[in-house]
Task: structure prediction
Amino acid sequence: MNTIEVDSGPNTKVFDEETLGLDVPETAHQISTDSWFQAGFVLTTGINSAYVLGYSGTVMVPLSWIGGVVGLLLATAISLYANTLIAKLHLFGGKRHIRYRDLAGFIYGKKAYALTWGLQYVNLFMINTGFIILAGQALKAAYVLFRDDDLMKLPYFIAIGGFVCALFAIGIPHLSALRVWLGVSTVLSLVYIIAALVLSLKDGIKAPPRDYSIPGTHISKIFTTIGATANLVFAFNTGMLPEIQATVRKPVVENMLKALYFQFTAGVLPMYAVTFVGYWAYGNSTSAYLLNNVNGPVWVKAFANICAFLQSVIALHIFASPMYEYLDTRFGIKGSAFKIQNLTFRITVRGGYLAVNTLVSALLPFLGDFMSLTGAISTFPLTFILANHMYLVAKKDKLTSSQKLWHWLNICVFGFLAVAALISALRLIAVDSKTYHVFADL
Result:
């Protein structure tokens, strides 16, 4: 029997989750319909998205072997811990908190609700912008394998990627409806990860000794190292754990923890493999998109790039779903997904949202910069600072002094890292802005 605790003054009552009449907010999307395994695949789809093709260049190059390996392992453990804190608060206070902002608002009040919603919106918007950049890069990489004529530039491919993402968003009404697409996403991920692994291994075995030193001047090394810490936490970023947990069947906390354990064990192995092997093969010359480094049959590289493009379309839908849920609920979009009124709404609203995403992607297609900035301004606050502080406030009467000190230590450390990473990310953007122009063809 799965139980939850409900605070009621000095006495804490324990109820059976299956029989307790929990207060569940209104939503136009489905809740309590998915198995923990499906939720685990949603999380794993995010962690093994086409972003993994960039970690060799954006994490390992600025940190080298010791910093990169230790950093990734620490980021894995810390991210799992922070996510379990959020998962355990899902039923806090006799309510089911199906949105991140609902949980923050319940614990802190209306101002925190608005602040958390703003942070989450920025976080997910920037992640989706990165996915559209990735989709455009993957399409361009496939194109230049056959025609290197400069007729098609990166902004054109980004526009194509944004259009396909919009079509997918119109056809898939909510997060639970992904179902079979999660299997498709897993296959697509395995294709480009295995292709990148095999071709990198082949290149690494034949290549002369590589340079694994951190490139740049002394000052630039400091800033890139700090920026890489934001990339580390970005690798495990969801920023929408309560929204994913809302789809999970009862017992919801127990099942969500199973999904998290799946994500942070089996789910991280492909990411580790491609990140470490890619850096081993090319050293500090590894690019921010690993498939641009590898050598091999044209058809293999083209197929891997197309799979990366298609997987980015599916993964973007996951991270855009909180915005879709808000809009659908706000305007009462219910019933058949293919009803004319519902289709018209999704075409107009979701299409418009992704059009803005696509414009920003084409305007500033600096993927590494987006990862650093997203990690600094939203991942650190949402996933680490807020998670620890919410748990501290919610469980203050049940925590020992040492446990409270531990959470405050986490809050202070991640607060300092967030500020440092923000400064580093802004500097990186300023440097790149001098090198590249808007709508750059990278």
User: Anything to note?
Assistant: Confidence is low (pLDDT under 50) at residues 1-21. Strands lie at 3-8, 11-16.
